[in-house]
Amino acid sequence: MSYLNAYNTAELVHAAGGTGIAVQVDHLDPAQVQALVARIDKEQGRLDILVNDIWGGEYLAEWNTPVWEHSLESGMRMLRLAIDTHIITSHYALSLLIRRPNGLVVEVTDGTAAYNETNYRLSLFYDLAKHSVIRMAKSLAHELTPHGCTAVAVTPGWMRSEIMLEVYGVKEENWRDALAKEPHFAISETPRFIGRGIAALAGDPEAARWRGQSVSSGELAKVYGVYDLDGSQPDAWRYIAEVQDAGKPADAAGYR
């Protein structure tokens, strides 16, 4: 049973054979989040998995802009969306999750711990937001361990989300047309790829081996043998470090 914030996502869950329940919730409003968790408790009596993927700051980041030039309002809003929403949700949801052992929290971020540690991520605000989510997973893992539950930070690669497809003026069916504008988009993946990796992680009876770690969709795919819709296993963060950041010509061969 999935409680979701997007109606079209709930429809996709239904189409895949599951049951999706769309709920409109402002995760910056503690009362709304508390009410959501109370509803889950009343209707299901349990919470096995929390995927904390709340964001919404895509249009707030000013790329490669120092803090004294970046909009303070946008930057602080970005931090609230990335950090406050996750903490508020965990505050109310985890008391339900820890009722049963083997509960899993997945903190979704952008970039692995190893990559973010050595690279500047767009702006001070964006950098701090994405670092914080990784640290949050580590802290939550520590607090959840006595209850037999765990937390993991997971990052997708260069994802072909609705926003990214719109930016490049393409659809999923013709996404390769975007390579004329951005050749490195060849390493991109669909949102289903990280979803399949997280589903496999959730179904792993030994998921606790990932406790507090930072992992990418590509790494999960290799461990669990899952594939993107086209049958590939894009390893975006290895590609970004070894090809894109290294200034080499775009070539995803051997990376998907």
CA(first)-CA(last) distance? 31 Å
Kindly provide the radius of gyration, computed on alpha-carbon positions and rounded to a whole number of angstroms: 18 Å
Proportion in helices: 40-55%
* Silhouette: globular
Beta-strand residue fraction = 5-15%
CATH superfamily: NAD(P)-binding Rossmann-like Domain
| Tally of individual domains | 1
Give the low-pLDDT segments.
Answer: none
Number of strands: 6
Class by alpha and beta content: alpha/beta
Order of helices and strands: EHEHEHEHHEHHEHH
Please summarize the sheet with the most strands. Answer: 4 strands, parallel
Which fold name corresponds to the CATH topology?
Answer: Rossmann fold
Q: What is the CATH architecture term?
A: 3-Layer(aba) Sandwich
CATH class: Alpha Beta
Strand order of the largest sheet: 3-4-5-6
Q: What is the mean predicted local confidence, pLDDT?
A: 95
- The count of helical stretches stands at 9
InterPro entries: NAD(P)-bd_dom_sf, SDR_fam
Organism: Paenibacillus arenilitoris
Pfam family, one: adh_short_C2
Protein name: SDR family oxidoreductase
